[in-house]
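Blinded run. Sample ID left blank on purpose so nobody reads anything into the name before looking at the predicted structure. Input follows.
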Amino acid sequence: MIKHVAQRVAVLVDAQNMYHSAKHIHNARLNFGKAVEYAVGDRPLVRAIAYVAKSKTGEEEAFFEALIEAKIEPRIKDVQEYSSGVKKADWDVGMAIDAVMLSEKVDVIILMSGDGDFIPLVHYLHGRGVIVEVAAFSESTNTAFRECVDGFLNLSDEKSFLIKSSRPKGKMKSSSAPDRKRSVKVSY
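Blinded prediction complete.
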């Protein structure tokens, strides 16, 4: 796929999908700021939004602040807790609505998610003339989703996006999102 420096880009980050993929595949945390910067390249970034969940404890506040420092706007939703004990904070519809609204203002939308539920959104955006790219971990990206987009950036190929943990796999509780000047450790 050809990328032009004049293409206006928006990046929509499925933060939970990316966090859990980095944790389970690489036993690491994703450097969200670096990953967004790399995916955009030399093109002008119009907007970067991370869709995040907030727990009752508020332990994610430092992560939200780090996103802001990295010039990524956090969209925050409270975690829903059901009587069965299941916790959920699904952002798929919110991401899709924002993509539709941004499609009139950008040439390219980069979805940072491996979630195949976004396939109908990709088809809609293609119908509007918008280029759709995905930046995600190939190991956790839906195959049909990967095949229907215009470009795929495999975050597993670029180890500089990952911050390794010294903790055993499955016990990690922190994440980070650096700004362009310095790295900030945060909980998520």
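Unblinding after everyone has recorded impressions. Residues 164 and 171 are 13 Å apart (CA to CA).
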